[in-house]
Amino acid sequence: MTLSADLFAKAQTLIPGGVNSPVRACRSVGCDPLFIASAAGSKMTTVEGREMLDYVMSWGPMLLGHKDPDVTAAIRAAVEAGVSYGAPCPGEVALAEAVVDAVPGIDMVRMVNSGTEATMSAVRLARGYTGKSMIVKFEGCYHGHSDAFLAAAGSGLATFCIPGTPGVPADTVRHTLLAPYNDLDAVKALFETRPDIAAVIVEPVAGNMGLVLPKPGFLEGLRELTAAHGALLIFDEVITGFRLAYGGAQSVFGIDPDLTCLGKIIGGGLPVGAYGGKRHIMERIAPCGDVYQAGTLSGNPLAMAAGLATLTKLKASDYDALAQRTKALAEEMAAILRDKGAPVTLTRVASLFTLFFCDGPVTNFDEAKKGDAARYASFYNQMREAGVILAPSAYECAFTSFAHSEDDYARTLDAVRGVKF
Ligand SMILES: Cc1ncc(COP(=O)(O)O)c(CN[C@@H](CN)CCC(=O)O)c1O
């Protein structure tokens, strides 16, 4: 038995499924998880001492790479001043200012502790601000695990093929309307039948059914429809925020959402989420407004220091260069796999990509589900054997980082060449 296997056996007696987040259990790719002892740059080292090349990067936060020296130094310095105050601290102002300066649609921002909290709070705010109850989300999009969204979430639930989940009262998801991603007509039809839609929440680039890009006009259409019907447009940029560009997807597509949800990268690896948007909407949030939201560790000084150090460094980083290197890697991976006879549809943007083992196009969840999950599981396991960690689910993305080197990419392609179907 390996040390990971021993740890996993014990973990399963103490923690549901042996993990603190379902996808980490690797069930959909038919293996047990590796336990990680440390990480630095583009690599993680298992408890067995094996160095693995990482394309999960903590599911997105580690855009600078693991254990970035500047981020680590900032956390170390913050620790010396204490770890939590339960009172305002300068770091909260500094990170809020960095977010407001970076994200076009954010005039004011509230820090929380996860992407789930961010989207849950943004929806409550939208309902409070508009006085309406219904929300529209898209099949295959995942906005965290708050009840309203577990109607047909992508990410974990799609991996486990659970459409919705026990424990969510039926009348909770009664206020959630679903539409296929990229289907503007479906959204238009919802608005024509429902006068009580408070908001449409969308991943501007969907990262939880695998990577699915918005069709031209889709996001613009959502902006027009919501404005015309007195509903808010909420961009869930937990993955895309500070990853597609320093200003997020909204700065790339030129769309002006009413509210934006952030997470992952803005905490630099520590637990941070945030929701922000137009000042006249955000000022409805307590204590200046009447829509309640709170959090003991929101604005935690260590997390603020890690987030600020991360954004400061990203602001000076060359996103275009990373996008070009990611493009070269992903296209070569797809070409090698096609030469092995596998049907592969590659979707890619910036430092994100997904290899769907099916013919394309892949523009929504139904098409994403045509991917050959067994072939993906085989690919995942063979790549892990070769020392490369991909997402343990066909419904996730691969994440590169500024720490990935040309040698890393060459090593990855060598591993792909060794794959046998
Ligand atoms: C677009 C989007 N919105 C919200 C969330 C929820 O964020 P968290 O509550 O996990 O911080 C996520 C979380 N992403 C998943 C991976 N696709 C987190 C990994 C996990 O669940 O362990 C997200 O992708």
TrEMBL record:
Superkingdom, taxonomy of origin: Bacteria
UniProt keyword annotation of Cell membrane present: no
InterPro entries: 4pyrrol_synth_GluAld_NH2Trfase, Aminotrans_3, Aminotrans_3_PPA_site, PyrdxlP-dep_Trfase, PyrdxlP-dep_Trfase_major, PyrdxlP-dep_Trfase_small
Gene3D superfamilies: Aspartate Aminotransferase, domain 1, Type I PLP-dependent aspartate aminotransferase-like (Major domain)
Pathway(s) it belongs to: Porphyrin-containing compound metabolism; protoporphyrin-IX biosynthesis; 5-aminolevulinate from L-glutamyl-tRNA(Glu): step 2/2
Subcellular location: Cytoplasm
Pfam families in the record: Aminotran_3
Modified residues (N6-(pyridoxal phosphate)lysine): K264
Swiss-Prot/TrEMBL keywords: Cytoplasm, Isomerase, Porphyrin biosynthesis, Pyridoxal phosphate
Enzyme class: isomerase
GO biological-process terms attached to the record: protoporphyrinogen IX biosynthetic process
Known cofactor(s): pyridoxal 5'-phosphate
A GO term for molecular function: transaminase activity
Coiled-coil intervals, chain numbering: none
EC number: 5.4.3.8
Reactions catalysed: (S)-4-amino-5-oxopentanoate = 5-aminolevulinate
GO cellular component terms listed in the entry, alphabetical order: cytoplasm
NCBIfam families in the record: hemL, PRK00062.1
Assembly description: Homodimer.
Family: Belongs to the class-III pyridoxal-phosphate-dependent aminotransferase family. HemL subfamily.
HAMAP family (alphabetical): HemL_aminotrans_3 (MF_00375)
Protein name, entry field: Glutamate-1-semialdehyde 2,1-aminomutase
Gene source species: Solidesulfovibrio carbinolicus
